[in-house]
Amino acid sequence: MIHLWLPLALVCVLAGAGAYGVIARRNAVLVLIGVELILNSANLLFVTMGSVRGDALRTGQVLTLFLITIAAAEIGVALAVILALFRKRGHIDLSEPGA
Amino acid sequence: MTSLDILFGAVGLITAASAVLAVTTQQLVHAALWLVVALGTLAGCYLILGAELVALVQLLVYVGAVVVLVLFALMLTRAPMGRSPEHSSSAVQRIAAAVIAAGTTSLLAAVLLPALGGEVLSARTGDTKAIATQLFGAWVWPFELLSVLLLMALIAALAVSRMPTTSPTSPVPAETEST
To answer: Rounded to whole angstroms, how far apart are CA atoms B150 and B155?
Structure first.
């Protein structure tokens, strides 16, 4: 027995922290950390809703597994882009104009 | 308050605190390490909510693979150890980001909490067999599509990292060929 406001409040805090990380950070890798936090808040919402409104297809947990896989693919490509950017510019500071 | 409530509250508090620390700490490597704590305790939250398979996949994929990738990227881009104030953004940007983050949080809370906050969920455990049946039954085509997506991401990452670049600012020319 869990009161549902606890996981929902955690979803809100994780999404807010991720949004702060995306906007406030200058290092590109740290921006990615914010993106990961936002994706994880979506995952937690999927799991919570899957637990409270359980259906025969187990949609909540299956979609969470899919989202974790997509996030892994996303961060692989994003880090490759960041490394290519570092080799071209010598830094990954997002606040400076591109070369 | 039930015992699961208290358990989830404790683990969720650690998750929230480490997530906030991961986006606010001034030390670059510490941000990745706080992300480990946040994602690991989030796996604990999944466990309390009765999603064992998701919790284990979260531990394997996120804490095992994604954070290692992030740490490697921080090392390869020569992240400075220790405090790096030259990497922190201006006060105006941080205040704007805090306002937007608070707006996001309160907007989500205003939607989710009044609609669903009063409900009580009874966590079902031991549901893994049903998930596996559905995953390889009803969801099998999206599942196969995901494997194609992972393959495409692998090839794309390889192609991007092997892309020839003219590097005017790269300090070591040999570095462009090494990867």
So the answer is: 9
Residues paired with B45 in a beta bridge:
none
- Domains annotated for chain B, with CATH where assigned, are 3-164+173-178 (1.20.120.1200)
ipTM: 0.92
Query: Which fold would CATH assign to domain A5-89?
Result: Helix Hairpins (1.10.287)
Contact between B165 and A87 using a beta-carbon 8 Å cutoff: yes
Chain A contact set for B79 (CB, 8 A): 27, 29
Amino acid at A67: L
- Where are the domains positioned within chain A? 5-89
The pTM assigned to this predicted structure is: 0.89
The alpha-carbon gap from A4 to the nearest alpha carbon of chain B, in Å, equals 5
Q: What count of residues does chain B have?
A: 179
Query: For residue B122, which residues of chain A lie inside 8 Å, CB to CB?
Result: 1
